[in-house]
Amino acid sequence: MSSNSLHYHYVVPGDDFTQAGKASSAVKQILKQLGFNPQTIRKMSISLYEGEINMVIHAGGGEIDVDIDDEKITAVLTDRGPGIEDVELAMQDGWSTASEQVRGLGFGAGMGLPNMKKYSDELKIDTEVGKGTTVTIVVKLAS
Amino acid sequence: MLIREIRDILNAELLEGEHLLDTEVHTACGSDMMSDVLAYVKDQSVLITGLLNQQAIRTAAMMDMVCVIFVRGKRPGEDILQVARENGIAVMTTKHRMFTTCGMLYAAGLNGGLKRDEQ
């Protein structure tokens, strides 16, 4: 059983792209301070960063909750955006609904969700069209 | 290759990270699409990009990259340099275009790194 648990909460604004990634940067700093190994930190940072960017470009922002216990780091990203119509399709490399404007910002190449799957140990997507999406990212701590 | 050497090869202007000039870099990645950069982890790497926003720096930071080169003479604003400062990333600007920049560094011995998985 886990004896220690840390919790962090972030609000991700949806109206300012320049801020996108700030929460992920803050989490990365915390993970560094806690002394996790660089690979673990990178896995969570990249997954969370892609998720945070998605929240901003697709869902008008949302909230991120990060829990750290003895075994794993869990990040839950919750938004009240449009939801994902076809998750299987969204998981495919290169598939994207992002606008040209978003592409001009360096994202929307259809690699966000595939990257999140690649770097996380567990990725869960609960989504309902018109209601929103909750993405859960788990990175296990190296034993 | 040292960040100092990169600056000299590209005749680039260092805008942030004077203290990082003697940092060794092993690989480079050239892209304007940040998710493509995030797809392959490389150690001690350089990002060459024409994307001029804070996310270019944040992306590099997530990947533990140590230097970002803006091509075609693009000059980042103070907000972008501030993010670089916070993350310990050197920033430079070169007049060369993306293809030329990549070619010059490749010819000088910097490679793209192995296309390996992050594990």
- The averaged pLDDT of chain B comes out at 92
The greatest interface here is: A-B, 28 and 25 residues
CATH topology of chain B: Udp-n-acetylmuramoylalanyl-d-glutamate--2,6- Diaminopimelate Ligase, Chain: A, domain 1
Name of the level-1 CATH class of chain A: Alpha Beta
Radius of gyration of chain A: 15 Å
Beta-strand percentage of chain B? 15-25%
CATH architecture of chain B: 3-Layer(aba) Sandwich
Question: Main sheet of chain A, how many strands, which sense, barrel?
Answer: 5 strands, antiparallel
| Stretches with pLDDT under 50, minimum 5 residues of chain B | 115-119
CATH topology descriptor of chain A: Heat Shock Protein 90
Largest β sheet strand count, sense and barrel closure of chain B: 5 strands, mixed
First-to-last CA distance of chain B = 25 Å
Q: Write down the overall geometry of chain B.
A: globular
- Tell me the CATH superfamily of chain A: Histidine kinase-like ATPase, C-terminal domain
Number of domains of chain B: 1
Biggest sheet strand line-up of chain A: 1-2-3-5-4
How does this structure look, described?
- The complex is a heterodimer of chains A (143) and B (119).
- In chain A, helix 2 runs antiparallel to helix 5.
- With 143 residues, chain A is an alpha+beta fold.
- Chain A starts with a strand and ends with a strand.
- Chain A has one domain (5-140): Histidine kinase-like ATPase, C-terminal domain (Heat Shock Protein 90), CATH 3.30.565.
- Chain A has helices spanning 22-33, 38-59, 87-90, 100-104, 112-119, and strands spanning 5-13, 61-69, 72-79, 122-128, 132-140.
- Chain A contains five helices and five strands.
- Chain A is globular.
- Chain B is of the alpha/beta class and 119 residues long.
- Chain B has a single domain, classed as Udp-n-acetylmuramoylalanyl-d-glutamate--2,6- Diaminopimelate Ligase, Chain: A, domain 1.
- Helices cover 35% and strands 18% of the residues of chain B.
- In chain B, strands 1-5-4-3-2 form a five-stranded mixed sheet, sandwiched between helices.
- In chain B, helix 2 (34-39) links the parallel strand 2 (27-30) and strand 3 (45-49).
- In chain B, helix 3 runs parallel beside helix 4 (78-87).
- The longest helix of chain B is centred in the C-terminal third of the chain and has 10 residues, at 78-87.
- The interface between A and B is medium-sized, with 28 and 25 residues.
